[in-house]
Known about the structure:
- By secondary structure, this protein is mainly alpha-helical.
- Helices cover 59% and strands 10% of the residues.
- Strands 1-2 form a two-stranded antiparallel sheet.
- A hairpin with a 2-residue loop joins strand 1 and strand 2.
- The longest helix is centred in the first third of the chain and has 22 residues, at 4-25.
- The radius of gyration is 16 Å and the shape is globular.
Amino acid sequence: MRFGAITATRRNHAVEHGTVGILLSRDSPTPLGGLATPFGFLVVGKVSGPETSDAAEEALGRLRAGEASLAVSPYCGTNLVIGAVIAGAVAALVTR
């Protein structure tokens, strides 16, 4: 499957967002961050493994139940980078 790694990364990215969102709603220490790969995801911050695992299980269950909004984060680094690249490209086109 040609797009298997991309599909897996997107799925894991959604669960990562959900996990971080749930941890933040539980007043976990900030800052928190994450990184999704085709093989899973990492959460970086001062949270314990059991806290993170519990939040990940809840996020996965809620996403499977149809709570798609849990996958969207206003703090997503990927969205910030894409926005910056687009803004830079537009600025370059305008100033030529």
